Amino acid sequence: MSDFNDLIQGPNLAQRDGKHLWHPLTQHHTAAKPLAIVKAKGALFQDDMGKTYIDGIASWYTAMYGHGNPHITAAMTKQMQELDFVMFSGFTHRPAIELSERLMQILPNNQAKIFFNDNGSTAVEAAIKMALQYYHNQGKKRDTLIAFEDGFHGDTFGAMSASGLSSYNGPFEDFLLKVERIPAPTDTNLEQVLARLETILENNHCAAFVFEPLVQGAAGMKFHSAKGLDALITSCKKANVLCVADEIMTGFGKTGKNFACDYLDHQPDIICLSKALTAGMFPLSITSCTQNVFDAFLSDEVAKGFFHAHTYSAHPIGCAAALAGLDLLQSAQLLERRVDIQRQHRAFVRNVHVHPKVQNARSLGVILAIDLKLNTDRYGKLRDRLYAFFMQRGINLRPLGNTIYVLPPYVITDAQLKKIYSAIKELLEVF
Ligand SMILES: *Cc1c(COP(=O)(O)O)cnc(C)c1O
């Protein structure tokens, strides 16, 4: 870094940050100063003191093709010079059209329409509003959601309502939509969960069943079976409840298939995508739905249309990033790399699962999670110590409670992956 850069943004960035900035998920009274990051490339980012870190969770599961991927930045630059932005109401553009066509080729084949939003929460918000209005338009009163315990769907009110993690929702619980909550299905509880669902569906006021398919991310990378989820979806479909799959975390190859729903026999009516959609380059999201959902909004009455918009909906630069991301998702090189990471994760799980400090170790696709046999509250002190342990070793992981998880960019090298595994093994010895 040049002296000039040092002068302007130099070593006191964290100090300047404290003056005017308010960070997400942060208790500023007690939190440590944030780390100033100045550069990122591939699976690495670098702080203002020149130290590099492996981005072990791809910056919240977004930068799956690596930071600063030249194929994506080139596509965005080209798009920027051609058409920067135009509103998406009354106008359309090639990047959005091409993206809809390309996504339709890989989404479950019951999906027919794509609605654009600008972040994950608003993709879920739109999905919930679609479901509520779907019934409203037909003159039916359906005002309740069904959702899993410990789910996470975002921080706007509808999305928060579907979420079941009280650490996020506490102060707002009195203001949320009506929700019936069911446990995620496991091998041992499926019968009970199904029975509970049947009771909920008996006097049916439910518009939608909103779920994270196969992996509940914020809950601590908890997995549930495709078979169990299929059974729940089947019951909901029989009762005409729209099924909404939140693939914001799981989408774009992380579970080993393009989408977690690809493991299911019964497909959701609505799917939410964001995060890796634009490879960490641009905030954009989509809510896709079936022709049947779309058709419920067609009418001579204007008010039966879906009156929901965000100014930056379908931003051309975001669409260009997403299109370039799809090239990479489907490239032979990264397909092979994903299989390779999956194989190494499995070997590591076999290696550590019998360790006395490991309560559970699991992997699916490039997602690896290890629950430690240590007691801690979700954002308690132990979690901070785990976080610091990895950061000292140049690895960015964000443990959730006693769960350590790794969700690396597909471009991570074997050496970088090994460094993460060794740090986890070291941790198992010293903690
Ligand atoms: C991150 C996430 C969201 C929220 O997305 P934002 O872009 O942060 O609003 C919703 N659902 C799931 C499963 C997520 O992982």
SSE layout:
Elements: H1 3-9, H2 13-20, E1 37-41, E2 44-47, E3 52-55, H3 58-61, H4 70-82, H5 94-106, E4 113-117, H6 120-137, E5 144-148, H7 157-162, H8 166-169, E6 178-182, H9 190-202, E7 206-211, E8 215-216, E9 222-223, H10 226-238, E10 242-246, E11 270-273, E12 285-289, H11 291-295, H12 316-329, H13 332-352, E13 358-364, E14 367-372, H14 381-392, E15 395-396, E16 403-406, H15 414-430
Parallel strand pairs: 3-15, 5-6, 5-7, 7-10, 10-11
Antiparallel strand pairs: 1-2, 2-3, 4-12, 8-9, 11-12, 13-14, 14-16
Helix pairs in contact: 4-12, 5-12, 9-10
The structure holds pyridoxal-5'-phosphate.
The site of pyridoxal-5'-phosphate has 13 residues, from helix 6.
What can you tell me about this protein's structure?
With 431 residues, the chain is of the alpha/beta class. It folds into two domains: 6-68 and 333-430, Aspartate Aminotransferase, domain 1 (Alpha-Beta Complex), CATH 3.90.1150.10; 71-330, Type I PLP-dependent aspartate aminotransferase-like (Major domain) (Aspartate Aminotransferase, domain 2), CATH 3.40.640.10. 39% of the residues lie in helices and 16% in strands. The chain contains 15 helices and 16 strands. The chain has helices at 3-9, 13-20, 58-61, 70-82, 94-106, 120-137, 157-162, 166-169, 190-202, 226-238, 291-295, 316-329, 332-352, 381-392, 414-430; strands at residues 37-41, 44-47, 52-55, 113-117, 144-148, 178-182, 206-211, 215-216, 222-223, 242-246, 270-273, 285-289, 358-364, 367-372, 395-396, 403-406. The strands form four sheets. It has a seven-stranded mixed beta sheet, sandwiched between helices. Strands 1-2-3-15 form a four-stranded mixed beta sheet. A hairpin with a 5-residue loop joins strand 8 and strand 9. Helix 4 runs antiparallel to helix 12 and helix 9 (190-202) runs parallel beside helix 10 (226-238). The protein starts with a helix and ends with a helix. The site of pyridoxal-5'-phosphate has 13 residues, from helix 6.
